[in-house]
Specification:
With 314 residues, this protein is mainly α. The protein is built from 13 helices and no strands. It has one domain. Helix 3 packs antiparallel against helix 7 and helix 5 packs across helix 6.
Length: 314
């Protein structure tokens, strides 16, 4: 990755970390399903307009609609709702840490559905560390009682499971441009969420106020529409493996924003659990493991192959 890629990666992590912050602010005056509906609906409109201005082909049929309805459900409607409802019970920084379980689930789902993933020692260790980290995060109190705080954490964890399935199902849409995929996916999520928000929350009765509207607009335009454009641009230049590093960086920005502007203070269990979870992510990512193996192999080769004597010493 060059300097430009790193800049885009840091920007993307800040934008996605900001989604937890904007959601937290919006929830002060707007119910959760309405927050998610506004996010996906406005972002879908923006991306559809951009796709049309760029001259992108926007195919449509019954088969296409069914496929995107499923993708929109597991990629946006369900996980966004789980996360935002979870944030009604837990701090935004904690939600961002639990959200880092997404790669763990993606690997585990890939192994279970036999998508080409293989069981390797680093992956098994990474998965175990990931669940150990979440166990520390949620804490042993969950075994004693199921309070709203625990339910909030489990709700965000359920969102990461949805993302784990979405990663693999999304691979079936390789024949369509990323911009159209994102626009259709968010449009499908809007179709799912519209009746839910209308029936459960009656959005027309909500009065968000200035900060509520600002947060909703920021969540939809910056953290969703702009984030997808940034993501696909970085994906094309840096590749999927490098872009996965954003998983480590999103909680940093989310925790920082929560501490600076919302007065959130996370306990020691949160940071201990995050450290264990990130260790698991590092094992699955494999880069540190490969570097360690390469150094070990070189050291072993040097031991087995003694240096040749200098002819001058004869």
């Amino acid at each position: 990755m060059n300097a430009r890629d790193w800049t885009l990666l840091l920007l993307l992590s800040g934008v996605w970390g900001g989604s937890f912050f904007f959601a937290e602010v919006a929830l002060a005056s707007v119910p959760p399903f309405t927050v998610v509906l506004t996010r996906v609906g406005l972002a879908a409109v923006i991306l559809l307009i951009i796709a049309r201005l760029r001259g992108s082909v926007l195919p449509f049929s019954g088969v296409i609609a069914r496929r995107y309805l499923l993708l929109g459900a597991i990629s946006n409607a369900l996980p966004f709702s789980f996360i935002v409802w979870g944030q009604t019970q837990i701090p935004s920084g904690l939600a961002s840490i639990i959200n880092a379980m997404t790669p763990i689930w993606a690997v585990l789902v890939g192994l279970l559905i036999r998508s080409g993933e293989r069981f390797t020692a680093p992956k098994v260790i990474g998965i175990l560390l990931g669940f150990a980290g979440v166990t520390v995060l949620i804490g042993p109190d969950l075994l004693k009682r199921l309070d709203p705080f625990s339910l909030g954490q489990l709700s965000v964890l359920a969102a990461t499971l949805c993302y784990g399935f979405a990663v693999h199902y999304g691979r079936r849409f390789g024949g369509t441009t990323p911009l159209v995929n994102a626009a259709y996916m968010l449009s499908a999520a809007t179709v799912w969420l519209l009746p839910v928000a209308l029936i459960v929350e009656q959005p027309w009765t909500v009065s968000p106020g200035f900060f509520g509207w600002a947060s909703l607009i920021g969540l939809a335009t910056i953290c969703t529409a702009f984030a997808y454009l940034l993501y696909f641009r970085l994906l094309a230049s840096a590749g999927a493996t490098n872009i996965s590093l954003v998983t480590f960086l999103v909680p940093v920005s989310a925790i920082s924003l929560g501490a600076l502007f919302l007065g959130e203070r996370l306990g020691p269990n949160a940071f201990i659990g995050m450290g264990i979870l990130f260790s698991g992510l590092a094992m699955i990512d494999g880069r540190l493991w490969r570097r360690f193996s390469q150094k070990t192999d070189r050291a072993a080769a040097q031991i087995k192959t003694p240096p040749r004597p200098d002819p001058k010493d004869r």
